[in-house]
Amino acid sequence: MSPFSLAGKTALVTGAYTGFGQGIAIAMAEACAHVLCAGRRSCVDTVKVINGQAQDMILDFADRMVAKDLCAAQTIDISINNVGIIRRDDAATSTVGDWHDVISINLRALFFTSQSFAQSVSERQATGKIVNITSFLSFRGGIRGPSYTASKHAVAGLTKAPCDEWAATGINVSAIAPGYIKTSNTEDLLADPVRNTAIVERIPAGRWGETIDIAQSAVFLAATASDYIYGAVLNLDGGWLAR
Ligand code: NAP
Q1: What class does CATH assign to 10-181+211-235?
Q2: Which of 35, 61, 93, 221 has the most CB atoms at less than 10 Å from its CB?
Q3: Closest Cα to residue 231, out of 129, 139, 140?
Q4: Where are the domains of the chain?
């Protein structure tokens, strides 16, 4: 079997209704995985595209028990922690409410979903892959989003911190750090000719990334081809950080 095949594997993709989550879910299915498409809204459109190899699950990962119950009820081999939110705020006026929301989803939900997944893999004496979707704001400050940047720096840490324990039980944890990628969340930047020109000129690859760039890397990090990768954060930014 190809080391890039996910045949016989079940992949959980959180936030699979739209954006990266949708693209990753489709790419996982193309690599022959069965995909649990989970989101707080129905992922029925994603499931329709996949056509037969996926399940739609309406779940809110803000509730820690949701991941625990899901991992206890299903045999999951791959956990893609994609859900993430941002609150655009200045450091001077950032509110406790914004911090609570962002940290609850981007960090607490991500960690406890991973913990529930790791427990279930360990109980089954199986192997598993966790792929965290972080951001190049794991490494940069960014503009107007201190809570988001703090959460994504922490996700890079949570990609490395469990390696010591979980590598020994057959679980790889890695992350993808996207830069400027075309999604509905970046439409405003793309539509702004001044910002868009400045961004593209700064990217060595000379273009924005596409969801497919993220999705294909997620398949690699979920497949046996990446079995010796632990705690790595893969920069997917057209060379932005390397420049
Ligand atoms: P998106 O389009 O907003 O998709 C996120 C999905 O997660 C949405 O379907 C959202 O549902 C769902 N979600 C949010 N909170 C949830 C919860 N508590 N429980 C279940 N589902 C929940 O985002 P995206 O742009 O594809 O980004 C995906 C990930 O990539 C995020 O972690 C983001 O930080 C990261 N990222 C994105 C970019 C970019 O250029 N877009 C760059 C770097 C990193 P609702 O629609 O109901 O909110």
Answers
A1: alpha beta
A2: 35
A3: 129
A4: 10-181+211-235
* Residue-wise DSSP of 111-152: HHHHHHHHHHHHHTT--EEEEEE--GGGTS--SS-HHHHHHH
Ligand 1 atom closest to the Cα of residue 60 is 19
Residues in the chain: 243
At 163, the amino acid letter reads: C
* DSSP 3-state of 189: helix
For the chain, the average pLDDT equals: 97
The owner of tokens 């991500």 is 110
Could you report the per-residue pLDDT of 7-51, keeping only the tens digit for each? Answer: 999 999 999 999 999 999 999 999 999 999 999 999 999 999 998
| Pocket around ligand 1 at a 6 A CB cut-off | 14-15, 17-21, 39-41, 60-62, 82-85, 105, 133, 135, 178, 181, 183-186
pLDDT by residue (tens digit) across 197-242?
999 999 999 999 999 999 999 999 999 999 999 999 999 999 999 9
CA 170 to the chain's CA centroid: 20
Phi, then psi, of 55 in degrees rounded to 5: -125, 140
